[in-house]
Amino acid sequence: MWGLLLALATFAPAVGVSLGASGASVMGLASPATTEAPVSTPAPRSSQAELSAGNENGTSEQHVRIRVIKKKKIIMKKRKKLTPPSPPVTARASVTTSPARTFDLPEKQEPDCPPLGLESLRVSDNQLDASSSQSFGLGPHRGRLNIQSGLEDGDLFDGAWCAEEQDAEPWLQVDARHPTRFSGIITQGRNSIWRYDWVTSYKVQFSNDSLTWWGSKNRSSGMDAVFPANSDPETPVLNLLPEPQVARFIRLLPQTWLQGGASCLRAEILACPVSDPNGLFPEVPVLGSSDTLDFRHHDYKAMRKLMKQVNEQCPNITRVYSIGKSHQGLKLYVMEMSDQPGEHELGEPEVRYVAGMHGNEALGRELLLLLMQFLCREFLRGDPRVTRLLAETRIHLLPSMNPDGYETAFRRVGHLARGPACSFCRGARSLLGLNKPRPWQGSELVGWAEGRWNHQGIDLNHNFADLNTPLWEAEDDGLVPDTVPNHHLPLPTYYTLPNATVAPETRAVIKWMERIPFVLSANLHGGELVVSYPFDMTRTPWAARELTPTPDEAVFRWLSTVYAGTNWAMQDPDRRPCHSQDFSLYGNIINGADWHTVPGSMNDFSYLHTNCFEVTVELSCDKFPHENELPQEWENNKDALLTYLEQVRMGIAGVVRDKDTEIGIADAVIAVDGINHDVTTAWGGDYWRLLTPGDYVVTASAEGYHAATRNCRVTFEEGPVPCNFHLTKTPKQRLRELLAAGAKVPPDLRRRLERLRGQN
């Protein structure tokens, strides 16, 4: 077997393992369906193309063809280069190479090094440098994987690092600040709606002092390795180094790029820290948590298993149930946590967290799985905060609203981890462990959008019924609230038709909302660091963004500020913006419609169709963070998750009862003067009305009863202010009930009815 592998290594030279490259193979293997056109180039660059040698005047000569890809058009550049090769020289530093090493068989690599942190912002802007930049908005600090550009090219927030056009030897440099074992690079092109720019091949160099550099070598030839890069702007392409290198600095040197475009890229570096026994460098910050929880990514089966384990560990406070199925038949599991799971207790509010609406935004999913573990463990330990929370609140955790989308993202990572198709190197891959799917990279290989939609291609956050438009039209006609209610708007007829484009996941969540009297909710997303609140849809038709507040603007701003103010990452004064907007200027909260319009959002639907107040929490710049970042993300969000749940105690709460029978009145309307949005009581007559501190005039009304009004004061003290009502039946209602029961009409009721007839 070793002889076979030696032969394979001889006939299959490679620069490492390249994952995600379309058509481009490892060094020495050309794409079978390309055309070639020799073009001279002054830049001293080699390529992933063929190398041929000849003799002229006693020296060997190599013809190096460089592939530049533009859609289906490929241009080959040809130049001459004398050997033995001299060390490549960049514009700013001399370069030396380490001794060439030739391997008959690839040693077992360590591709499991986590991301260094360009995408997650653990790498700061001042750790990035470049040979040149076209503008500040295209500076090295923008060369982060998955970074998104603003709408305008040329502003301060462009979508990549781009070298100047006249820069003949461009490079992007990362300072790890500590001795680091570099094992791989992931690249993308430029994110832009106006331009197409991406690098098609690059070299890699390393240094310990930023002055003396050595390159990554091809095992078979000993030449500098040229790595195949991108063939479109967005697909991430992973290259593992032939041999991991220990250094402080790493440089990416683009060799070729799209014809007519610029040398632009976004990148993430895979790197492991190296011990520093002499203490020559500052101590590496440790990402971690003191909580002993399951910090890893969970696919559907692992998620289901973990939820079952939590239920078995804490059977008295947990219940696992399903609210429906996805398009692919995966169940939408919910973990209920309360001191009386399975039943609604009179006066106990219901709250929920929903995650995974977009399947590739995986952090919310893992945070809810961590939250249920944490609540179970702390309850068993007798933690007073958790004990009170579970005694006074019924909590529902839906970690994956879009399990099909998550599985797509999860499998995509595993597929790319296997590497490109290669019939002759399966044995070597088996030795390297590359035939097993490893979802260790997180979103570094998933990209920005894959797995976002459900299996039908529906964006679930645009799939709820648009109740905003009929409400606003009725308000413009002066019909609200006398003719058209300002709450619990019914589903439009078109939305209930059998052929309506409504995802099964959406229908399941709507039925869940209608079945349980939720008061408070948060929808966990990823890709930014901000809390957005309703309305999410702009009131002006076709407006891309516009401040569109609800009547409960004060409450929503309070709720948003509570989460943002207790989230460690959002409160970091030194953090930089994720993409193109600095939300820290606004306290890390924003009105959803003032950010970008989202018709059919779950937040707006929840507010207009039910009693529930819901915000969206964008948890992290990285949608699918690496597993080693989960402990820190948990610490960033743990207190915020608990504090937000406790806000259900803010405002007033009570029970609306029949004055004669003391029976709770269901569907009674609770109206607050000055706020054009009402809530209703649950089936037992209990209600909760979120309000900020202040004095309020509150009216309770129900069909067949006289309305009652009272003053209620909300203070800053913890706990809802009791505000109960006893309603008296109207004479007509009492008469209906007596006649229905076959009883005689009492004399006092008969006299009152006669007086009413006389008035008419």
Automatic annotation (TrEMBL):
PROSITE patterns: CARBOXYPEPT_ZN_1, CARBOXYPEPT_ZN_2, FA58C_1, FA58C_3, PEPTIDASE_M14. Residues 296-648 form the Peptidase M14 domain. The active site is at E618. Its cofactor is Zn(2+). Residues 34-62, 79-115 are annotated as: Disordered. Residues 111-272 form the F5/8 type C domain. One of its GO terms (molecular function) is zinc ion binding. One of its GO terms (biological process) is proteolysis. Residues 34-61 have a biased composition (Polar residues). SMART domains: FA58C, Zn_pept. Transmembrane segments: none annotated. Residues 1-16 form the signal peptide. InterPro entries: CarboxyPept-like_regulatory, CARBOXYPEPT_ZN_1, CARBOXYPEPT_ZN_2, FA58C, Galactose-bd-like_sf, Peptidase_M14, Peptidase_M14_domain. GO terms for cellular component: extracellular space. Keywords: Carboxypeptidase, Glycoprotein, Hydrolase, Metal-binding, Metalloprotease, Protease, Signal, Zinc. Belongs to the peptidase M14 family. This is Probable carboxypeptidase X1 isoform X2. It comes from Physeter macrocephalus.
